[in-house]
Amino acid sequence: MKTVLSIAGTDPTGGAGIQADLKTIEAHGLFGMSVITVVIAQNTTGVFGMQPISPDLVKKQIDCVFDDIRPDAVKLGMLYDPEIVHVTAERLRAHHAQNIVLDPVMMSSSGHDLLRPEAAKAIVEEIFPLCTLVTPNLAEASALSGAYISNKEQMEQAAKMIAQQTRGAVLLKGGHLSDCADDLLYAEEQMHWLPAARINNPNTHGTGCTLSSAIACGLAQGISLTGSVKRAKRYLTACIQYGLDLGHGSGPLQHKVHWE
Description:
This protein is of the alpha/beta class and 260 residues long. It has one domain (3-241): UDP-N-acetylmuramoyl-L-alanine:D-glutamate ligase (3-Layer(aba) Sandwich). It contains 8 helices and 9 strands. It starts with a strand and ends in a 19-residue tail after the last helix.
């Protein structure tokens, strides 16, 4: 049984964060574990409050997992503040964690800040060098690269800039492009465009969490990075195409789907 650890925030409605990660890992037939960094009061309409977990308790959670059931891959989501970033990076280094996938959560789909400004620098300096893959959307990539991104050429330039800060690869998600939803995987100085048709479904809450967790599942199973990304995209497409419609805002995905 392969195992995946998610280090992220919560979503009480189950559409994003730790809850979506665990659903995704289960859907792939792997054993999911979680370290909670922030407890968030949110639903499909927005974020209404949050309480970060103390860095010491985050540290103890990580140690408890690695000392007992070592994960084959680690998915990182919302880390929120510099203290949580620092302790997470320090413990991942101490445990020699492998197959780390970072979804650099900065802002919710409803526009609420999910990362303190001073934490972004800490993530780039301390977390990026540990990552096998970083999966920013266009807005996050713009913040990380300092460049405006609205087309494929700008995506390629931004991917190169971000990749210089990691020891691995970058998956730049194109879901917010105006004319398509193509993603760009930049790995080993090679550009891999991954075409995707835009699906007419406004309920896409938790897509970033789901995709990054699915990629981590592939890496945990020994699938290549490119293969893991392509498989994760097929899974996410099936989750969106299912057409689940819950809540009064941008609703969650159906994670239990037939996709292979």
